[in-house]
Amino acid sequence: MYKIIRSDINEDWAHSGIVEVGDLIFVSYCVGNIGRPIEDQINGAVDHLEERLKSIGQSLECVVKMDCLFRDIWNIPVLEKVLKERFNGKYPARKSIQTEFAHRGGEEGLLFQLDAICARI
After folding, report:
1. What angle separates helix 76-87 from helix 38-55, to the nearest 10 degrees?
2. pTM: predicted TM-score of the whole model, two decimal places
3. Which of 14, 19, 22, 46 is most buried by a 10 A CB count?
4. pLDDT of 14-45, one tens digit each?
5. Which H or E run includes 62?
6. Distance between CA 28 and CA 105 in Å, rounded?
């Protein structure tokens, strides 16, 4: 039987930012630099993911899957540029989805969010 560890909890949103079970780590709702250009927001989301992983003794190297949510899916090339800079050839599997974010700031606010599945290393 695995123990489930939930952390980075936001009671207002009924949300756990990190859930650990066995050797798997689920990290959700990584965002950053909201209101700034898309490249800044993607880097901010990766920074947020990296901070959360560091809080449990892990690094970006453990990321095996990312779900990338865009307000405008045509920004995928910007994501690819950032991933090449940040993951040093050890890329996670990923999918990209376009969505309307229910977030304050409207169309000029949140442009990118990521969720990740990681393997403890």
Report:
1. 40
2. 0.92
3. 46
4. 999 999 999 999 999 999 999 999 999 999 99
5. none
6. 20
